[in-house]
């Protein structure tokens, strides 16, 4: 049997657990809980679910992750982008507010969990590598923008159709400018101000006043809670919900979620599969990225396979709690870390506090205006909209920058799911395109040395009767015709050519298509009176070739050990080597 | 204006056209026409169309190709695999025998033509490179097998449902063994015998008897025509169509197709797009492959872009003639070439003869049994079933062989369209997988030279404090995390490590994801007290890096011109170099 610490990283941390570590964890746990309660409710709205479902997703999943996760300070729970994806996915099958809608969310959690565990079982976690930095960056910015725009509804009190594309949302807004509820807008803007003030001015102020950290830190991170308090008090005090129609959260059922109420719906799984895969991959990618950054600050590393398991089980926990998928969030994890979380005990404390608030605090949220939750969402996603990343990309690599831009635009137009799929498609198409055009260099001898270098970059000597070509890539179906055409074109450009030497020191394998092309090439060159030779063939490739009749097929062509050897033998009757630069 | 010969290769050939060339062309034209008439009718049945549609597809498209094609001896017209694909595509939308069915076939021709011309316009002909040799080979064998199996119907006289998967076809056959029409079976087997006899025995016999080539050659290639004659005579003589229910071709309308009767149906185009793309690509690939083989026998080359235009226009010609898509076929092209075709005038002659037979010979086909056409099809596709290719592939490269086998099985199970798409998907997934695991070598100094080689293959000297790694691939999103993990793992395996040198002589570009990973790697290594250096960075990559802050970001890390320089500087305080083999 494997030792406990192998399965449960927390067992390892608890071996040296001390009072001081617990106090750090307690502090971080409290601070995260203060953020988590309002954010959880807000993100549940974003996913189209009643607010308590965000809190349900913040108890059992956190505890399960705390047991299994390899990151000490990753804060798992409802996150903005996954909430948007859940909302836009389920809106296609079910009406918001119905049992079918909630059931779809639960099935989605189950599917996300199962997919993550399958990826672990098949050792396929590296599949996320195919989502390039540019695609993720364009996707995140666009999703954050979509989330921010979706909150126009909560700020204006207008009934903007949920699934409308952004231009229709704006169209609706401009058509109904006079119908905007000014009280709602005022509450929303006030909440934004409270959030901004707490995050910037208040923090600096407390620091300047040298307030002790254990007081200053919770106060700084309590912006969402302050906004909730201020918003609720304004509505309650001014009876705005009655006199001015400001929409509030209203009655939240007190108590814990019922466990194990899942209705499996395998037909639904077919429709949910692709969204679930994307939610799983993006959630996993975000969690691992954040986890890696935080771990490296402690000079530790996280284990991606353990993360697959931990996030998979956490999502099964979501399904068990009857709520929607979770992931490791960027914002709260940063707060958790900087608040001093030493182990995942901090997350357990957060989960426990959310549980307490579900048991005792829900009546307090009756007057909480939705506009305030909208403000919490907008302030949380604005940092995700990142234009500087495009600027940097553009300077470095235009193709990446254009992929980023295309993904950004496609997500805005077609929505998160189709948008990111198109983005991934574009980046893979670019990769295939690049792989179909390998770098090939005509090389010549450097001085009288044994070195051969690209004639375009170095002052080298070439020969009239022998052409040496270095192929800087493995040979396979996607590039083999390009290589063939390149060689035939070179032949057309050189009269008196008798030999071509292919330098294969960068060829790590040759596939069947390439072998066939090479065999045909030998024949075509022979028709023109040119012999094909190979040089510097790597061991494994040579073994491969010896399994076939290729070497016989070369006829007079040889396989040379070094390019130097090849050139000395083939051009020995060549009395006047041609100096490339002077030719 | 571009000269005529640039647009019409035939104009070039006609400049030196002589009587002797014409006689060769005439001979080849006649021989191909003798094959083409029965094959055309048979393939039309395969596509689910009345037999005359195969002849319609053998007139205008051939003439158009003859004007525009760059291959002297490619024989364009109805081909087996495209016919199968047309049949299985349209069966999904329309009932055989209806106007809707024929209209779908015509729209498919139009779409194939348009797609080929668009590929030319966008210079995207190289897209066929993504269909690897293994995929095409597996696909062709499976399609040929499917075609052969589909003829059980014509041989047995049983009414096997057309779109049934193969196991159901066999099931139907075994359930109805007693219902097999013995007369039909007999006619079919007789036809097979005639075809086999003509192709093998008769040919050798004539050769042995020293019959002049101009007689022997047409006779040898007239197998299908002989089979048609024998089959028709048996049915007519024995009145088998009446007494034994042998199905015959029956009445074929005499006369030419009506031109320009296309009913555009853009809604249908959405459904037809993917099949049309596949038919276009496979047709183009087969035509170019055959054309290249034939051209190289004359030491000529064909021009793939001209072929895209010529095949595109030929398919528009099919659409204009109200019939289904055409391509350059393997079998008839070989016959055309070996019969001595010198220019595409041969194809014009074939087309003219098909035209004549449509005008005058159709009544003769009244008694032609479908079983004979089935025999013509089966004998034409059997050579396409190629198991030796799998054996060769298996010896050379297991992954290719498995791709071939998977494509073969998937085509048999899911049909041609989905099967080949899965095959292409598999080969691209393998390519992506390989590209995500680049070859990285730890290198050491060879003797006291300036050369550094893989420590696993050569006897080299390494240093305790400096690790030199050569990355044999460009760095991009799909492989960047693998490279990072490889390096971090190497660090864990070496204590006392102070420097890592990345040798980038095979790195042709770095994308934004890789740059970000490298920047993170610098920080992670710095945390462990290790400095990252680069060596042998190529010019274009260095230019790219200088556009960013990466070089500053390296801190104490340097970019060395050569590995030798790097190792001399970094390991200078290292008094005892470690010899790898003795370590």
Could you write a compact summary of the structure shown?
The structure is a homodimer of 583-residue chains. Chain A is of the alpha/beta class and 583 residues long.
Mind explaining what this structure looks like?
Two copies of one chain form a homodimer. Chain A is an alpha/beta fold and 583 residues long. Chain A has two domains: 415 residues, no CATH class; 140 residues, Transcription Regulator spoIIAA (2-Layer Sandwich), CATH 3.30.750. Chain A has 27 helices and ten strands. In chain A, strand 3 and strand 4 form a beta hairpin. In chain A, helix 8 packs parallel to helix 21. Chain A is elongated. The model of chain A has no long low-confidence stretch (mean pLDDT 86). Chains A and B meet through helix 20, helix 21, helix 22, helix 23 and helix 24 of A and helix 20, helix 21, helix 22, helix 23 and helix 24 of B.
The dominant shape of chain A is elongated
Whole-number total of structural domains of chain A = 2
Distance between the termini of chain A: 73 Å
Mean pLDDT of chain A: 86
Uncertain regions of chain A: pLDDT < 50 for 5+ in a row? none
Multimeric organization: homodimer
What is the number of helical segments of chain A per DSSP (H or I, 4+ residues)? Answer: 27
Rg estimate of chain A, integer Å: 31 Å
User: Biggest interface, and residues per chain?
Assistant: A-B, 57 and 57 residues
Residue fraction in strands of chain A: 5-15%
Return the structural class of chain A: alpha/beta
Portion in helices of chain A: 55-70%
Number of DSSP strand runs of chain A: 10
Q: How would a textbook summarize the main sheet of chain A?
A: 8 strands, mixed
